[in-house]
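Sequence in, structure out.
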Amino acid sequence: MSHTPQSPARHLRRLLELLAAGAPAEELGTVAAEARRNGATAEDLAEVEQATEAALRVHSTLRQHRRREAELTALFDTAGDLAALRDLDAVLRSIVRRARMLLGTDTAYLTLPDEEAGDTFMRVTDGSVSELFQNLRLQLGEGLGGLVAQTARPYATPDYRTDDRFLHTGSIDAGVLDEGLVAILGVPLLLGSGSGGQVIGALFAADRTPRTFAPDEVALLCSLADHAAIAIDTAKAMADARIALAELAEANAVIGEHSAAIQRAEESHDRLTDLVLRGGDVADVADAVAGLLKGDVAVHDGSGRPLTAVGAHGGAASGDGGGAPGGGEDGAGAAEAADLVAAAKRSRAAARAVFRDGRWVCAMLAGQELLGCLVLYGRPDLDGPDQRLFERSSVVTSLLLLLRRSVAETENRVRGDLITDLLTAPDRDPVGLVARGRRLGFDLDRPHILLAARTGGEARDRLADAAVQYLFGGGGVSAEHEEAVVLLLPPGGAGPGEAARLAAGQLGQLVGSPVTVAGAGPAAGPRAIADAHTEGVRCLRALRVLGRAGQGASVAELGFLGVLLGDHHDVDGFVTTALGPLLEYDAQRGTQLVRTLRAYFDCGGSLTRAKEDLHVHVNTVVQRLDRVQALLGPDWNTPEQALELQLALRLHLLSGA
């Protein structure tokens, strides 16, 4: 079958139409074949083939331009993302996704170094389906990625598994195999240029089939990697800037707080100073400190006793001096006082306030002498400026206490002269003595507890000053008289024996040596007070003879020795103290416990002889003595107690009861 030759112009027009339509290169090649089939002459065929080659070159150039246009568009889009950088992860995901799209690979991923772990990890992946691959970690120099990071140069392999240029490891090869990757291209993320550039990661594109990456593909991935490096560096700079701004704001806040604290400290110091100059007392200072520091405040003396308190803490403190000497103190109160003294000593050693048991304690000092402590409750978070204010408040309180103590010492010397005259010649001018006392604010007609205190050695010279400190704020008075210190205490809840024991313990702490104290009274009027002093001196003598130095007691508590030594010879009181439970039991039930006890002692403790004297069965004697033990206690038959009971029984018999 023959074909009519066609003009070459027709075939050339066909080539132009295909180019305009963007037809693939394969369709351009069919034009020459068609001319050959249509019987084109050799000359026309050669012309069509030359035109086809030219069309293929134009097609290739157009394809490159389109690809370059797509690459430039992607780079411009990436640059736009960087300009509006708000989320680093979003920008990195966009770069990895564009790398995969532009290079037409099955997957793309980006790795970054982990400075703490000393290796690199997968930061972003796109097209990956293997969890094992997504969690890979590479050491420097391991695999293609490790080589890229180590050399700061791009590397490509058409078949990773058979390429021996890289250091293969079991974990990396397992991840690559699980993902099914074969051809891999990796380029470094560089900050800076030349030999001084710093590798901060790597960008990869990979296929699951063998592939050779062209130079322009390597260049494109390098451009995207540069953008990723800029994004990471920009994000780091922005983070550093935010941190710097936060630190600057924090520093500015600290400066503002410090300035406010300084101003507040100045105002607080002026307020406390004004309180002292206006004659304020310890309670006024405590109230001011509580208001300034927003907490409860208590002031305690050197032995831990409360002087004043503002708020819910401070025990039995009163508004002015609280806790008068001579008052009773239970075990819990003594332990609390000991804890406060220990904390105050720690504060003195540290030269600052200390936090202990949920409260702040600051020592109040006169030189190294511990005057007491200032205690703050309810502020466990006390910061630097407030802590310094608290410590400064303790200094102001110390000055106020020193001033008050100086006044008290002066008043005590004047009152001491009165006490000396009172004890030396109570009958010379009793009315005048009472009048002098009232002018000094001391009413001798009111009942008072008299304490006589004595110590030995070098501590004797410190005892008078210790007595002044002990009485400070309590309303009592003291004076030296006949090698002892005499203290007159206003009436309180404690009897003379209890007041003597309390004073012995605290005076001993103040002088650092055992102090023996005898209590007498209550006594009212010059003569009665002088008699109480005489009784107290005798009690002191008895305590020394009994080997009870450093203790406190009253004549009434010394049993039959008190009867012998006391001026009033309170026989009935002694008998009641010793036999009271038995006498009451016999009176209520008509029993004969007192008679049985007397018979038992008269028979030398013999149950057989006692039952004959009482004309009862021996079991009855045993039962009665068991009842005596239940009423008097298990120690009723000890030598000392037995002597007391026998003397009481004899006095009871002689009284005709």
